[in-house]
Amino acid sequence: MTTNAKPITPDEALDPSRALVPSIQRVNEVRVQKGFWPKIRRTAAHIPFARQAISVWYAARDPETPTAAKAVMLGGLAYFVMPFDAIPDVFVGIGFTDDAAVIAALIATVGAHIRQRHKDQAEAALERLRED
């Protein structure tokens, strides 16, 4: 994202009409591949929704997850990893509220595609992060 790029809103991140556009899917996928784990490593101890975010990440990478659900998941995860969003993460106490809202909306929208195995993988990943 360039410094001149306009931050997207949580609604835009989860908008299926945008998330299903192939070029936006590719941008979101690259953004998530590059930024998800570094951000989770920095923030997992500070955000109560880390397990849910990681579950979504595993579901988005699962070949059995339908393409449309993956697109919405990647849109929400891309919003999470963006350095500029509706409420900047540097604001202690409220900085992650918009990210939490996006993850909650993701789960409400496509949560049926987040399987127990994704939740188990998320728990194992959090354990590994705690050990580091």
Kindly summarize this structure in a few lines.
The protein has 132 residues and is mainly α. The chain is 67% helix and 0% strand.
Question: Your description of this structure?
Answer:
With 132 residues, this protein is mostly helical. The protein is built from 7 helices and no strands. The longest helix is centred in the N-terminal third of the chain and has 22 residues. The protein is globular, with a radius of gyration of 14 Å. It starts with 9 loop residues before the first helix and ends with a helix.
Mean pLDDT: 84
Gyration radius, in Å: 14 Å
Number of E strands? 0
Q: N- to C-terminal separation?
A: 29 Å
**Portion in helices:** 55-70%
Helices, by number, come to 7
The largest β sheet comes out as: none
Write down the oligomeric state: single chain
Structural class: mainly alpha
SSE map:
Elements lengths: L9 H5 L1 H4 L2 H22 L6 H12 L5 H15 L15 H14 L5 H16 L1
Helix pairs in contact: 3-5, 4-5, 4-7, 5-6
Task: Name a few traits of the molecule.
mainly alpha; 132 residues; single chain
